[in-house]
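HUMAN: Ready with one sample?

ASSISTANT:
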Amino acid sequence: QVQLAESGGGLVQPGGSLRLSCAASGSILVFNAMGWYRQAPGKERELVASITRFGNINYADSVKGRFTISRDNTKNTVYLQMNSLKPEDAAVYYCSGLSRGGNNYWGQGTQVTVSS
């Protein structure tokens, strides 16, 4: 079973940037798709961005033009580059992998705080 581990969260000022990484313990090619979700206090977890095994990418409207998802199959890592961060982007960000069997695997999450 592949495990996922996020890193790269932290405190950033509005307008700043962060790059999140999701490192898998094995090949990420076992996943049909990988994605980044986020959950703010009192809110439901929402999809931020996803990338399929074939490279098809999808973004939430709220992050289009500011966030970029990418993957490096040789490093078994998925990234989320976040630019022009806003206070409303603050949340715990989770990495997920959707297996070919339809199971969702999750990382432990990384906190992103956007505040001056």
